[in-house]
Design a protein that fits this description.
The complex is a heterodimer of chains A (269) and B (271). Chain A is mainly α and 269 residues long. Chain A has eleven helices and no strands. Chain B is built from ten helices and ten strands. Chain B is globular and about 50 Å long. Classes of the chains: A mainly alpha (269), B alpha/beta (271). The complex binds adenosine-5'-triphosphate and magnesium ion.
Chain lengths: 269, 271
C-alpha cells in the first residue's frame, strides 16, 4: 500500500524542492529520449516492419485528419467504457465490502486471485464460445482484465485502513457508517484509485486483445488491416495512439483523485 | 467487589466524601490479551474530579491498556468502569481521548480535524466550526485552520489532537503520552500551557507518561504501576503548590523528593 503513495509523495516533495519546471524538464527529456531511440531504431532499420518515429507521427496525423482514427475510437471506446464502468462500480463496491467483512473476503478473494493470475488471451476463445463475437464478448474481455485488479486493490486498501484513525472515530462515538464513509474510505482512496488506474490500463489491453482475437473492429481492426497490407507506419500509429490515449486517461484519473478526494496531496505542489 | 450499587444515588448512602468526588471508578479491572498475555491484574482506582491523575510505570506494564479500557476502546477481561457512579461499556460523550500518534485525518484541514468529534454528532457546520476556532485559539495554533496535518510540526499536531478533544466538551480527558513525540522545549511549553488550560477548562485529566519529572510536575495524583501483569504499586499525591513559577517548582524540595522517591521505586524494576 505504502509503495505507490510513498512514491508519489517523494515526487511531490521533489517538485517543491526544485520547482515544477525541473520535474517537467526531466519528464520531457525521458519522453524525447524514447522518441529519439525509436527514430534511430527505425532508421537503422531494425526490421522493414519497424517504421521511424517521424513516419509514424505523420501517419497518425493523417489518420486523425481523414477521420479513420476517430471512427475507430468510437468503436473501441464503447466496450471499453461499458467494461470499465461495470468493473469500477462493481469492483470498488465488492472490494470495499471484502475489506469490511471477513465472509465476503473468504468467498471472493480466491476467485479474483485466480482470475488475476489467469492468462486471459487463452480465455478469449472461451469468451467467444459463451458470448459470441459481438459487443458483449468485448465487454467481458475488458471486465476479466480490469475487475480483479480493481477488486483486490480496493480490498487491500480497506483492510489496511489505519487502525488508529478507526479507534479515534470510535472514541468520538462515530457510528459504523460514519467510520466507513468518513474514515475508512477516504483513508483507502489512494490505493483504490491506484487500482482504478491499473484497471483502466488493463481494460485497454482487454479491449485491444478482444479486437485482435475476436472480431477486428475499431483500433484492433486498424492494426490488423494495416499489418495485412504492410502499411507499418499506419499500424504503429494505431498502436502508438492507444498508448498515448491510455496514458492520458490514467493521468486524468490521478488528477481527479487529488482534486476531489485528497486535497491534502495538492499542497506543496 | 459489589456490583449491586449500579444506580446513581450513591451520594446519600453515607459513603466517604472522597468516593463521591471520583468521576471515574476503576473496579477490579483485569485484562488478558488472548490467553497468555496478562496485562492488568485487579486494578482498583478512583479518579478525583477536576484533578490530574498520571499513570507511571515501566514500559509494557499496561498503562495504555488501562487508559483505553477507561476510554471504552478496549474490553476488560473482567471488572468494570464507572463514570459518575454508573457502569459504562464503550466510549461515551463524557470522555475524550488524545492519541499518542495524534490520529489526525490527513485529508482534512486543522479546522475540520478539530471539529471532527462534533461532525460525528451531526452538529451544524457553522456551529461546530465556531467551537473549533475557539479551541484552536485556546491551544495556541490560530492561523493554521486551513493547513493540513502534514504541514504542521509534531507539537502542533498534538495541539490539534488536544483541541479536538476539548471541542467535544467532555469532562474527562484521557491522554496517552501526549508529549512523547515532541522535543524537550516544546514539551515544557506544552506542559505549562496544559496546566493553564486545565485551570481554565476545569477538566479531569488522566495522563500516561514515561517521565517521572513530568508526572510529579503535572499531577495531583500519580498511580505507579508494577511490571506485567500491571498492578497498582502505590499512589502518590505530590501536593505541589502551583502558585510558584515553573522554574521554582522544578527546584522545589518537595518536588525533587518526590522525583527521587519514585525513581527509587521504579529502579527496582529495572534490575
Ligand atoms: N493487542 C495486543 N495483543 C497482545 N498483547 C498486547 C496488545 N497490546 C498490548 N499488549 C501487551 O500488553 C502489555 C501492556 O501493553 P501496554 O501497551 O498497555 O503497555 P504500556 O504500559 O502502555 O507500555 P509503553 O510504556 O511501552 O507504552 C505489553 O506487554 C504488551 O506487549
Ligand atoms: Mg503505552
Amino acid at each position: 500500500m505504502a509503495t505507490t503513495i510513498g512514491l508519489s509523495n517523494a515526487e511531490k516533495s521533489e517538485a517543491s524542492a526544485f520547482g515544477l519546471s525541473k520535474i517537467t524538464l526531466y519528464q520531457l527529456l525521458s519522453i524525447l529520449g524514447l522518441f529519439a531511440l525509436w527514430e534511430i531504431g527505425g532508421l537503422v532499420p531494425i526490421s522493414v516492419a519497424f517504421p521511424t518515429f517521424s513516419e509514424t507521427t505523420v501517419a497518425l496525423f493523417e489518420m486523425i485528419a481523414d477521420g479513420r482514427m476517430i471512427a475507430a475510437y468510437a468503436d473501441t471506446l464503447k466496450p471499453l467504457l461499458i467494461g470499465i464502468g461495470i468493473s469500477a462500480g462493481f469492483g470498488v463496491t465488492l472490494g470495499v465490502a471484502m475489506g469490511l467483512n471477513r465472509r465476503f473476503q473468504w468467498f471472493w478473494e480466491p476467485i479474483f486471485i485466480v482470475l488475476q493470475a489467469a492468462p486471459v488471451a487463452a480465455l478469449i476463445p472461451l469468451i467467444t464460445f459463451i458470448y459470441g463475437i459481438g459487443l458483449a464478448a468485448k465487454v467481458v474481455a475488458v471486465i476479466i482484465l480490469a475487475l480483479p485488479i480493481i477488486v483486490l486493490n480496493s480490498y487491500k486498501a480497506v483492510r489496511n485502513a489505519s487502525a488508529s484513525l478507526i479507534q479515534m472515530c470510535q472514541s468520538f462515538q462515530g457510528t459504523r457508517l460514519q467510520q466507513i464513509w468518513k474514515v475508512i474510505i477516504p483513508n483507502a482512496s489512494p490505493v483504490i484509485f491506484a487500482g482504478l488506474r491499473l484497471g483502466v490500463a488493463a481494460g485497454f489491453i482487454g479491449v485491444i486483445l478482444a479486437e485482435l482475437l475476436i472480431t477486428p473492429t475499431g483500433i484492433g481492426d486498424l492494426i490488423t488491416y494495416h499489418r495485412s497490407v504492410a502499411e507499418y507506419a499506419e499500424m504503429y500509429a494505431a498502436v502508438f495512439s492507444v498508448i498515448v490515449f491510455s496514458a492520458i486517461t490514467v493521468g486524468s484519473l490521478e488528477r481527479a483523485e487529488t482534486r476531489f478526494f485528497r486535497p491534502d496531496k495538492k499542497v506543496g505542489r | 467487589m459489589p456490583t449491586s450499587l449500579q444506580s446513581m444515588p450513591r451520594a446519600d448512602d453515607g459513603a466517604p466524601v472522597s468516593k463521591t468526588e471520583n468521576i471515574v471508578e476503576v473496579r477490579d479491572i483485569t485484562k488478558f490479551y488472548g490467553t497468555d498475555v496478562h496485562a492488568l491484574e485487579k486494578i482498583n482506582l478512583g479518579i478525583p474530579v477536576g484533578q490530574m491523575t498520571t499513570f507511571l510505570g515501566p514500559s509494557g506494564c499496561g498503562k495504555t491498556t488501562l487508559l483505553k479500557i477507561i476510554a471504552g476502546l478496549l474490553e476488560p477481561t473482567s471488572g468494570e468502569i464507572l463514570i459518575k457512579g454508573a457502569p459504562v461499556s464503550g466510549p461515551g460523550p463524557e470522555r475524550a481521548f488524545v492519541f499518542q500518534d495524534f490520529a489526525l485525518l490527513p485529508w482534512a484541514t486543522v479546522l475540520r480535524n478539530v471539529a471532527f468529534g462534533l461532525e460525528l454528532r451531526h452538529e451544524a457546520k457553522n456551529e461546530r466550526e465556531k467551537v473549533a476556532r475557539h479551541y484552536i485559539a485556546e491551544v495556541g495554533i490560530s492561523g493554521f485552520e486551513q493547513k493540513y496535518p502534514h504541514e504542521l510540526s509534531g507539537g502542533m499536531r498534538q495541539r490539534v489532537g488536544l483541541a479536538r478533544a476539548l471541542a467535544v466538551n467532555a469532562e474527562v480527558l484521557l491522554m496517552d503520552e501526549p508529549f512523547s513525540a515532541v522535543d524537550e522545549q516544546t514539551r515544557r511549553k506544552f506542559q505549562e500551557d496544559l496546566l493553564h488550560l486545565l485551570a481554565v477548562e476545569k477538566k479531569t485529566v488522566i495522563f500516561v507518561t514515561h517521565s517521572i519529572e513530568e508526572a510529579v510536575y503535572l499531577s495531583d495524583q500519580i498511580v505507579l504501576l508494577s511490571p506485567r501483569p500491571g498492578r497498582i504499586h502505590s499512589i502518590i499525591r505530590p501536593e505541589i503548590s502551583r502558585d510558584a513559577g515553573p522554574d521554582e517548582i522544578r527546584r522545589d524540595k518537595n518536588y525533587l523528593d518526590h522525583v527521587e522517591e519514585i525513581w527509587q521505586d521504579l529502579r527496582k524494576y529495572l534490575e
